[in-house]
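Structural prep section.
Before we set up the soaks we want a predicted structure of the protein with uracil in place, mainly to decide which crystallisation condition to try first. Input record follows.
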Amino acid sequence: MRLQRYLAMCGVASRRKCEEMILRGRVSVNGEVVKTMGIIIEEGIDKVEVDKKPITSNSTPVCYMLYKEPSIVSTCKDPQGRPTVMKYFQDVKERLYPVGRLDYDTEGLLLMTNDGMLANSLTHPKFEVYKTYTAFVRGSIMPSHLRKLERGIEIDGIKTSRAHVQLIKQDSGRSEVRITIHEGKNRQVRKMFLAIGMRVTKLRREQIGFLSLGNLKPGQRRKLSIHEVNRLLDEAKAGNFSSSR
Ligand code: URA
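Run finished without errors. Recording the tokens verbatim:
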């Protein structure tokens, strides 16, 4: 098996992150630092280390959903020393890491796993996993705004794909909009609204694929059942993630 695939399978990080780790010289095989991609290793025979710590394959993929609160970083470590999502998982023995990102100021559904394949499938653009957000927006949303968001809008020089957009509430110059997208560009939802002249004051991710926050409260987590994990893996493999609309 290729080294980067093995590292991802062992839950070190997503495949792309593992490739970065290799290029940075953090990975060694049988005591030798490996900085090139594609080296083949034999599971159970070759001794693989990351940052001098031995890596073993975990046979059971584990996945949690977390209701991330705002003002929390969705990475394992933060160079600025801000609290990270790892604070919610101190009692969990598996080496978890976040599947994709939510902005520091965004709240809502974030998945955490020890399974690199799962993380890769859920974040890779080709699998088009649908994500639904509730955006609390300053200003009144007009039908023309909704149409623009729906058709796709240019942000950072690239047009976003079609979105599903629904006005939920509008009251004294404030609007609540539900928006479903399958891309994950940096601060995409906030930038889409900025492109139509509206500022998002609060953003909550409600749903990823078939998984939704349900009764989870801010700061709470729930371990996914083995059926849910298998369904995530199956749907990712089949490429048939869809929104619940
Ligand atoms: N879009 C945003 O603007 N922020 C997020 O955290 C996720 C999607």
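Observations: The first strand starts at residue 27 and ends at 29.
Flagged for discussion at group meeting.
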